[in-house]
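Sat 14:20. Reprocessing the chain from the morning session after the first attempt stalled halfway. Input below, unchanged.
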Amino acid sequence: MAETFDLHTRLSAVLGECAQVLPFVADFAAFWQQPLQTGDGWSVAQVEAAERRLGLALPAALRAAYLLLGRRGDLTSNYDTLLRPDELHVVDGALVYRVENQGAACWGIRLADLEQDDPGTVMRLDLADKAQEHWVPWESGLTVACIEMVMSETVLFAGGFTDFLEADADEAGVVGQFRQLPVVGRDVRWFADPDVLIREVDGMCLHVRARTKRALEQLRDAVPGDWLNG
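Finished this time. Tokens:
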């Protein structure tokens, strides 16, 4: 693993700078998981086969993500799932590239936006009344969605020093002692110290990952509560 990675500084620099996203993801993976290696992405032939099957060209940002890390489940598919190239499909005018872990929602890119290098994304809930389903705007850019995916799936990784707390308002407020990161992802706030990464959802649920056992224990002490694995 890498020895240092200033997540706050790197995130501040990368948001809005498409060319810096893949280097950021590579450095993030090396620090929080394992370095990216040859073979962690799908091949050009596999991506192009998907494009031929669909009769369309993938946006540059999505193609780059597939080629770099599409096969790294620890970064893409611990909870929600980045579809394989041969699983990509079109639903009601949008290319679906990611699905929620229980099939309750999916994320896509409107076909009209595929020619953009870094198009915005959309989300669609799976409803009992299919007539009520529709796409709604989600992330402002596919690169932002990629960063959010990698960070979230890392925190939700089953291995390593991870934990979960369903906090009350007072407990959740204590997380503010950690340094808040720039906004990445809807309805989510991120906090970090050098060896701790915290994902706060809806102001109550805390998913955390630490680089060492001691760092995780210190986090639990700093944010007391009924930790799932504590």
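The domain at 7-149 is CATH 3.40.1580 (SMI1/KNR4-like).
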